[in-house]
Specification:
Layout: H1 3-17, E1 23-27, E2 40-43, E3 46-51, H2 60-77, E4 86-89, H3 96-103, E5 110-114, H4 121-126, H5 134-147, E6 152-155, H6 158-164, E7 173-176, H7 194-199, E8 208-214, H8 222-231, E9 237-243, H9 247-256, E10 262-265, H10 270-279, E11 282-286, H11 299-305, E12 310-313, H12 319-327, E13 330-333, H13 338-348, H14 351-368, H15 371-387
Parallel strand pairs: 1-3, 4-5, 5-6, 6-7, 8-9, 8-11, 9-10, 11-12, 12-13
Antiparallel strand pairs: 2-3
Length: 389
């Protein structure tokens, strides 16, 4: 269910197809905390070994305890691993790459890091760690030690690459490859999107604006909710599908505005997600100031690959903003600018305009966000860290 897990799965399958043996170490806990997966299994040729960790929750000290227990479990599991040529660390839980460097670094083999969230900068953006305090400086030093000696550090875009470069030195290669979307139903084939629209309560006459995925602290929802309030019952459907720390804002809005055209939808299985993404008319993406280069929302790639335009709300200097402007596949709106958002929504309600921008989005996705192309690029980078370019 977690996007990071889905992207890692795509890459792992690509590596297996290229003739490599791949083992993934992850938690036994499901993303929503609702259950556990088997201890070990083979998935699309990938050996998955799941470690037992705490499942106290996804907030505050409980989440920190869960993360710490995974680090400990990883250290213990390392003793059971056979020989390997390369380790690739993601960034959840935070600093798992540091644990890998300490525990597995002595075993030989190259090390690579795939940065999905940049720590400790994310903690400072959260406001959980003061950016000028001793704790922050200590965590910055830990990040540098985590990357020290790595053959490759991989970012998700040019702005993230620039932020990550502050922590990378020596002979470490620093590259960026964007994440990708999953091809869904044809944007012009309404027969394939009719069922998901009916399931979520959308009629053929509705213009549906969909926010799909994590509603985290690095995102913005207030402009969307303000526009929904302004447009009222005569406006489009505003659907928020997923979870995260800011979901409570939508729930509170609905409690105060029970007749609003705002929906809260649960996550759907991966097999149903592609159809839901294609069933919406326009997708909503956002980023909060201070988070530029720290995260790169993958919602845009998913929308573009489905042939759907995007309304992006956020600061101008980040990947999502650049891609919307470069592609012509949507609208860019500044933070707090509700009037410009209303104007964008007005244009988005025109079917011909949606189709034009959606076609531009799809063309851009085929050039830049193709799953096969981008997983192959990453696979070649990983192979180069072992054999040399």
């Amino acid at each position: 269910m977690a996007p990071t897990g889905q992207y890692l799965h795509d890459l792992a399958r690509c590596l297996v197809a290229r003739g490599h043996e791949v083992t993934v170490l992850c938690s036994r806990r499901s993303y929503d905390g609702g259950g556990e997966y088997p201890r070990e299994s083979m998935v699309d040729g990938v050996r998955v070994r799941r470690l037992r960790a705490f499942g106290f929750g996804r907030r505050g000290p409980a989440r920190a305890a869960d993360y710490l227990s995974f680090h400990v479990a990883l250290g213990l599991e390392a003793r059971r691993l056979g020989p390997f040529d390369l380790t690739l660390s993601l960034t959840t839980p935070p600093y798992v790459g540091w644990t890998v460097s300490r525990v597995l670094g002595r075993r030989g083999g190259a090390r690579a890091h795939w940065v999905m969230d940049l720590y400790p900068d994310v903690l400072a953006a959260y406001g959980s760690v003061p950016s000028r305090g001793g704790t922050y400086r200590a965590l910055q030093a830990l990040t540098r030690r985590q990357f020290a000696g790595a053959a490759l550090v991989l970012a998700l875009g040019p702005h993230m690459r620039e932020r990550v470069s502050r922590y990378v030195s020596g002979a470490t290669r620093l590259e960026w490859v964007p994440l990708w979307g999953t091809p869904g139903a044809s944007p012009t084939d309404r027969s394939k999107t009719r069922a998901p629209r009916e399931r979520d309560g959308w009629t053929n006459d509705d213009c549906v604006l969909l926010y799909s995925g994590n509603m985290g602290l690095g995102h913005r929802l207030e402009e969307f909710l303000a526009a929904a309030r302004e447009l009222g019952a005569g406006g489009p459907v505003w659907a928020f599908a997923g979870g995260g720390r800011r979901l409570d804002e939508v729930v509170s809005y609905l409690a105060a505005n029970p007749t609003a055209r705002v929906q809260v939808l649960a996550y759907v299985p991966q097999a149903e997600l592609e159809a839901r993404l294609a069933a919406a008319d326009v997708h909503l993406v956002s980023l909060r100031s201070g988070w530029e280069g720290l995260i790169v929302p993958s919602k845009l790639q998913a929308a573009f690959t489905s042939g759907r335009p995007v309304v992006f709300v956020g600061p101008p200097e980040n990947e999502a903003s650049d891609w919307v402007v470069d592609s012509g596949g949507g609208w860019r709106v500044g933070e707090g600018d509700v009037q410009s958002l209303l104007a964008a929504v007005g244009e988005a309600r025109d079917a011909a305009e949606r189709a034009r921008r959606g076609a531009a989005a799809l063309a851009y996705a085929r050039r830049h966000f193709d799953r096969a192309t981008n997983t192959e690029r990453i696979a070649r980078l990983l192979e180069d860290t072992v054999s040399g370019p």
